[in-house]
Amino acid sequence: MKSILDNRPALKAEVMKIAEVAGYLWTNGWAERNGGNITVNITDLIDDEIRQMPAISEVKPIGITLPCLKGKYFYCKGTGKRMRDLARWPMDNGSVIRILDDCASYVIIADNPVNPTSELPSHLTVHNHLIEKGSNYKATVHTHPIELVAMSHNREMLGKDVLTKILWSMIPETKAFCPLGLGIIPYTLPGSNELADATLKELDDYDVVLWEKHGVFAQGLDVMDAFDQIDVLSKSAKIYISAKCMGFTPEGMSDEQMAEMSRAFNLPK
Ligand code: 13P
Ligand code: ZN
Questions:
Q1: Residue from 39, 114, 117 to probe ligand 1 pocket by mutation (most atoms less than 8 Å from CB)
Q2: How many Cβ atoms from other residues are within 10 Å of residue 31's Cβ?
Q3: pLDDT tens across 154-205, in order?
Q4: Please, which residues have CB within 8 angstroms of residue 258's CB and are 6 or more apart in sequence?
Q5: Which tens digit of pLDDT belongs to each residue from 125-144?
Q6: 8 A C-beta contact, residue 233 and residue 148
Q7: Is 119 a catalytic residue?
Q8: Among 116, 156, 157, 193, which is most exposed with the fewest C-beta within 10 angstroms?
Q9: 18, 55, 102, 240 from 68: Cα distances, Å
Q10: Which of 119, 132, 194, 251 is an active site residue?
């Protein structure tokens, strides 16, 4: 079967990177059933021939108007589709969409009419804001990392930057590779515009946010960058929990050690 990826090595490489990350989400145990979603702004990889491609779906409303997305193209995981399937067959478990000129609706253009993720409002709201800010971030990832979600069931840990401080102090690399820490979003209905708005606000200050009792949402230069930030935070969460399982609360790096590290790596305070 013909695919939009045929004879387009750059676009194919980008989609294969998404497939690779989908495999990591599954093997990490973060992607039960259809859990999690990925969208990537692939507009820079779109040629004239793709721009002429007809819609293969009816016009679908986004639910919000996003002025910076006019004529933009995204690869989106399909709703109800499994990451473990997407890892092997990205174009059967996701699709390429084109945002229409009204900035409030889209059509699917390839390869199959796979409906995009139910979290599309959150993903597209964030992409719209990234373009508005002139950011070069192109990818957003939502997943269900076990330890971080478990921590979000503890009221105390949901205080501003409480978890950031704990996670940064578990291992020096965490602050180095996730220098903005972890934002917190109080529980909100999955797929809702309210969740999208809350996520948008928090992502002005953080690259990764924790959706209380649900999962995380990350933004990054590409899908690998967004994944890496979730991965380093998750590693710290595992270290914290391992220490707790051994019967003690981990000491964590001291404030002086953190400050020394921040100076050495030129990180924000
Ligand atoms: P989708 O299958 O619609 O992407 O939903 C998965 C999910 O994790 C919702 O939060
Ligand atoms: Zn989810």
A1: 117
A2: 24
A3: 999 999 999 999 999 999 999 999 999 999 999 999 999 999 999 999 999 9
A4: 168, 169, 175
A5: 999 999 999 999 999 999 99
A6: yes
A7: yes
A8: 156
A9: 23, 21, 11, 41
A10: 119
C-beta 119 within 6 A of ligand 1: yes
Whole-angstrom Cα distance, residue 220 to residue 179? Answer: 13
Identify the CA nearest to 146 among candidates 61, 68, 242.
242
Residue type at 232 in one-letter notation: V
Residue 172 has which token pair? 């020096």
For residues 17 and 9, is the Cβ–Cβ distance under 8 A? Answer: no
Nearest one of 103, 104, 107 to 70, comparing CA atoms: 103
CA–CA distance, 242 with 246 (Å, rounded to integer): 6
Task: Give the predicted TM-score (pTM) of the model.
Answer: 0.97
Q: Is residue 82 lining ligand 1, measured as CB closer than 6 Å?
A: no
Strand, coil or helix: what is 53? coil
Which residues does 49 contact at the CB level (< 8 Å), separation at least 6? none
* Residues at Cβ < 5 Å from ligand 2 ion: 215
